[in-house]
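Troubleshooting log. The previous run stalled partway through. Resubmitting the same two chains, unchanged.
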Amino acid sequence: KQEVTQIPAALSVPEGENLVLNCSFTDSAIYNLQWFRQDPGKGLTSLLLIQSSQREQTSGRLNASLDKSSGRSTLYIAASQPGDSATYLCAVTQDNDMRFGAGTRLTVKP
Amino acid sequence: DAGITQSPRHKVTETGTPVTLRCHQTENHRYMYWYRQDPGHGLRLIHYSYGVKDTDKGEVSDGYSVSRSKTEDFLLTLESATSSQTSVYFCAISESQGRGTAYGYTFGSGTRLTVV
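Second attempt completed without errors. Output:
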């Protein structure tokens, strides 16, 4: 059974800092990995999708990498802003199922 | 997300009553999913659909049933609601599945269900 773990569970940083969120998964036979953002009381917003054949994806200040063989992905956020405060979820897809990590709750302080 | 809507957004119901949640999409995507989100468990798949009248169980399907009579609508029914089904329910859609797909999942805004 696929298990997805995100470390740390919570992170607080000052504005402007670069930061890395980690995601690990136990079964490397995935189709893709997706990073989401979730604001309190809201739904999930897709940030980046990395296919199993890709190593990284970039969107603005966000960069996600995938090392399928080691079962790891990282989400790099450059020059963090208070508006980046949210919970970040990673999820891996295989067969007809997407498995989620528990998320990292990020707080960026002004 | 404008292409996927869930209704109702909030609902309070009594134990033992039936409840139906609706997910409606305007994207004509083949795949639709129901997840629940609970503290300490994250998001877990309840049921999914891979076409009209084609559905299958997910990780936590006990106590839930689904139906999909049209491409755009996917209904989740709690036949007899219990307090353990108090949760936030999310619907998701995807255009395709399988290895190499370039398409991820798009989520609705969620339905907060409280069973008292």
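Takeaways: Chain A touches chain B at residues 31-32, 34, 36, 42-46, 49, 51-53, 89, 91, 93, 96-98, 100-103 (CB under 8 Å). The CA atoms of residues 13 and 108 of chain A lie 5 Å apart.
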